Amino acid sequence: MMRIPCPWCGPRDEVEFRCGGESHIARPDPDRADDDAWAAYLFDRHNVRGAGSERWLHRHGCGRWFNLVRDTVTHEIRTVYAMTDPRPERDP
Amino acid sequence: MTGFRLPGGGRIDRGRPVAFRFEGRPYQGYDGDTLASALLAAGVTIVGRSFKYHRPRGLFSAGPEEPNAIVQVGPRPDLKATQVPLVNGLEAGPVNCWPGTRFDAGAAMGLARRFLPAGFYYKTFKWPDWNWWEPLVRRAAGLGRVDPAATAPEGQRRHLHCDVLVVGAGPAGIAAALAAGAGGRRVVLVEQDRLLGGSLLVDQGEVDGMPSDLWLARAEAELAARPETRILRRTTVFGCYDHGLVAAVERERIVWKIRAARVIVATGAIERPIAFQDDDRPGVMLAGAVRAYVTRWATAAGRRLVLFTNNDDAYRTALVWHGNGLQVAAVIDARRSADGPLPDAARAAGIPVATNATLLRALGRRHVRGVVVRDGNRRLRRIACDTIAVSGGRDPAVALFVQAGGRLAWQDAIAAFVPGDGGYTVATGAATGLFGLGSALAHGHAAGAAVAGAAPGDPPLAADVTTGTMLPLWHAGGDPALSWVDRASDVTVADVGLAAREGYVSVEHYKRYTTSGMSPDQGKASGVVALSLLGRATGRAPAAVGTTRFRPPWDPVPIAALAGADRGRRLRPVLHLPAHDQHLSRGAAMEEYGGWMRPAAYPQGAETRQAAIRREAAAVRAHAGLFDASPLGKIDVRGPDAGRFLDRMYIHRLSSLKPGRLRYSLAANEHGIVQDDGVIARLGPDRFLVGTTSGGAARMAEAFEEWLQCEWVDLDVFVTPVTQQWGVVNLAGPQARTLLGAAGTDIDLDPAAFPHMTFREGTVAGIPARVARVSFTGELSYEVAVPARRTAELWDALAAASVTAGIPPPVPFGVEALMTLRIEKGYLHVGADTDGTTYPADIGFDAAGRRGDDFVGRRSMQRPDAVRRGRLQLVGLLPEAADAVLAAGAHVVATGEGSDGHVSSACWSPALGRAIGLAMVRDGRSRMDETVTVDDLGRRLSARIVPPVFVDPDGSRLR
Ligand SMILES: [Zn+2]
């Protein structure tokens, strides 16, 4: 079971969290997006092997959402950052 | 000859005899015995029947690697007798025999064994399909029985945090724990056995110049005296998980979740056999196990031993056997020569040693009677014996190291996989392939010292016994179809070859095809034998074949232990209504709805549930009813942007709602699918109270937060779930206004002053209340919300108001009557009438057409799939036979082929005096008055499609 460093509460067991999937999925302007663009927003995900950005909710804790970069092979959590922060440029 | 208890020695308490039963027969052992050692000492030779062929099987090992002695202990199936501590009154038996171990009807399978090779089931039972055959096959082959009525003792889950976790308390583990904790570090030492010591419990020697037992006692005392060191006995670490989580189970009841800064794996090594013909006969055992039964449990497996080995270490067994006055008929050593100190000692003791020799076959059927040996001159000869001890070397127990991310390396010197690099554990002792006592102690000490953080003290000193090289040997000879690889799964050397010939060359495919390593022993002793034979059959070295993936659990864990205290009601606690007792006192039949215990109905006297539902629903239409609506979700949404926010969360615009007014709306997700519905109240300019379904309360609050925190971070809105802060009683029916007035309220109830879809704040019966004119029944209705703790008071006051009013009392009605009433009105029940494919348009809400601004899911409602023809649409159904109540879930069938939709809600309507239903029907709205067939599991009815409102279509009763 992973230990996830909540930016507000500190490291906690994975069971306290909910994964919200890939982060930084930009919501297109609904009135300009054609069906393909909208479908891509809804369904297309990178499903990376290696470091990927995800958003997580500390559901049974502070109730806050935050971003993290997790290696999908090793489960190593590289960094944790706020919802409003951009995706880190390089692997930290 | 069978096993017996030796006159002295052993780590058993002969002053404390223990009575137990096996297969119903009484036996006696001693405190300190396992079920296995007690059975062996009692002369029980056949402890079970094999999985596929029902061959008689005896004990094979003395530890968790046991493949044969799989037993049922009381209600607990599939335990290994080698791991069951003997306690008074224990009732055990084998798992795979009928009628018993001595005579087994299924043994006929053994005669037909050549028809049951690997993959037999896949090849044979594919017509008509496996499901047809499965019950027959399961009856023939299987393990223990689960008694559905039995309740396992309640388990526990505990958490443990420490600096250093040492897994295994053999010499290396103890040395590691001593060193690691010397400076005060918090150390946890976990041992699966009831005693510390590991190999020292079997093979005594000298440590630090004293007998190893004395050293062991001192080490244990020192560890026990350290305040920061904790020892967990009878605790098996079964898994190493992500981010350093280590899980262990203590006495089959307590699951420990351990987080340690450092994890030292000192799990020792497991001896493996060499395959030969009929090597599964009772009396064939691992050499180390034969020795352990003698030294630890004072039990001899027989009187006349043949030892078959490819290494020096196993000679200890011959020496111990001989030293206890038992006869060693021969040591059969597969190597060209054996001249280390141990073979020399054997020869010096007069034990016949034959090198360059091979054991081809065990003789005897129900028990070993002898062996067929091919000697160095290729001559065959028979040797009489009653016990065969076999050793093909030892495999370091690396499973935990690998689970923790470590990689393995192949070591030729011991022909085994050893820990390489990587992972979050450090392996030490025999688990690394260091089989000498001195080496293990030194290595363990160093591993502990590396994480000690202070002076670790001196390493314990002992000498290694020099051992010569071993000779890798997997199958000695004899018929491969009668030479076993995996005893527990009945996989033979021939099966390995067959799997290889049929293309199962990947060890993972091989495992699944043959089921090798998939039994309770998990192939602990057979894994490397299997992969080496597979390598031989496919021209690859074992290292190239590799191991199957090591997955937790390393050893079986009772589900009850994993469940811990989460069982029965505690697995999923239910909420009670604040007026729970009021409902009970009125005869409520309580049922669970979405996590709440709620009155389903209030049957009076001998009244049936169905009669009660119809009486309650009729009373609401004719007079008045009281309904406890407290579980309806309530979310307080406030802030300067609350209106804008709710505009985006609901398909209707809510920012235009005036304070004091209510609006019904639906929420969709970003896929446009209906998620929830409810009535939203505007409490003030910056404040709304959002009503949700009872089941949707938590989900909607979480969705609000996700959008606010992740997407619209600029909106200034606070979301507070308040469902349980309020108790809500719904007073519905033509007499509702009279009754509410009689209960006493300072709110003007005149319909002009307090119209439908508005709310007022004031007092009701002296209780501060918020009263909403909203209806889920279609009747004039007041929803009275008060602080939760005053709900019972409110309920009683509304019930008693009839006395003041001089009319009959309102009738309490339950969830089932409410469902009847709302179906009569065609009111939607999200989750019943809708599912994961329902857009608002399908149920009559043209949300996508809302102009000017956006909301969640709107764009998806414009996708081609959402607007295509042929979608399921909500309609009403009138069965042709008025008394034919439809079944929710029954299919609407168009032309006899395929489904044209389904019944989503159905009931008997007291108002109409007939059966009615709601249904999602393909293009339903354009098929009014069409007669369709409804198929309920083969029962066919005719029904007419009608608009989904059966009572008061213009809503005059609401006003
Ligand atoms: Zn938190």
How would you explain this protein's 3D organization?
The complex is a heterodimer of chains A (92) and B (959). By secondary structure, chain A is mainly beta. Chain A has a domain at 1-26 and 50-86: Folate-binding fold. Chain A has one helix spanning 35-43; strands spanning 3-6, 10-13, 18-22, 51-57, 65-71, 77-81. Chain A has a 4-stranded antiparallel sheet with strand order 3-4-5-6, with no helix packed on it. A two-stranded antiparallel ribbon of chain A has the order 1-2. In chain A, strand 5 and strand 6 form a beta hairpin. The two termini of chain A are 23 Å apart. The model of chain A has no long low-confidence stretch (mean pLDDT 94). Chain B is of the alpha+beta class and 959 residues long. In chain B, 22% of the residues lie in helices and 29% in strands. In chain B, helix 5 runs parallel beside helix 6 (212-225). The termini of chain B are far apart. The model of chain B has no long low-confidence stretch (mean pLDDT 94). The complex binds zinc ion. Residues 6, 8-9, 58, 61-62, 64 of chain A line the site of zinc ion.
Rg calculated over all Cα atoms of chain B = 38 Å
Q: Can you give the helix content of chain A as a percent range?
A: under 10%
Sheet of most strands of chain B: 7 strands, mixed
Order of helices and strands of chain A: EEEHEEE
Distance between the termini of chain A: 23 Å
Shape of chain B from CA axes? elongated
- Can you give the helix content of chain B as a percent range? 10-25%
Instruction: Please tally the β strands of chain B and state the result.
Output: 54
Largest sheet of chain A: 4 strands, antiparallel
Taking pLDDT < 50 over at least 5 consecutive residues as the criterion, the unreliable ranges of chain A are none
User: What class, by secondary structure content of chain B?
Assistant: alpha+beta
Name the quaternary structure. Answer: heterodimer
